[in-house]
Amino acid sequence: MASNANKIIKGLDNLYPDAHCELNHSSHFELLIAVMLSAQTTDERVNMVTPNLFNKYHGAKELAKANVNEVEEIIKSIGLAKSKARNIIKTSQILSDMCDGEVPNNREFLESLPGVGRKTCNVVLSNCFDEPAFAVDTHVSRVSKRLRIADKEDDVRQIEEKLMTYFPKKKWGKLHHQFIFFGRYKCKAKAPECLDCPFTKICDKAS
Known about the structure:
Elements: H1 2-15, H2 28-37, H3 43-56, H4 60-63, H5 68-75, H6 81-99, H7 107-111, H8 118-129, H9 138-146, H10 156-166, H11 172-185
Helix pairs in contact: 1-11, 2-3, 2-8, 5-6, 9-11
């Protein structure tokens, strides 16, 4: 296991040394909202709507007072707009009332917010506060299973636990982004680019 883990770390460092969060944001609050909006859609689509959203509502205190129909109209192109609009407004209200509009470094509190699950919380904690976390999205899930770190039937929490056991804690934050880049741009769900992949010997799909 340790040998394969080191091979994966080295291979991803060579492929994506500068992997990073591709959701555009200028504050912890904007990242939280962007990640909430990214559920079941792409970062690219989220980045198309957040400039208008954040230009109209500057921070949690303004978004807390927003009209849900106006917010829904701004984000309607990303899907699930009705529920997402309600959740980001409710979350903004809670942050305004309890945290003066700031996003706290507190997992239990963050996961209690409307529309914030473990994956969203992990992304925020890792990117905003450098907390060791390994968020599991569709890309991370697919890559983990293909590289035989996780089993095909594992759910996202089981995958997260296995990733945290498999790799050193200090590597989790960077690897999260590298797994996403690898899954998004090379180890794609359909037509993965296997020809020059450094992981063919350990990949479930290539064997």
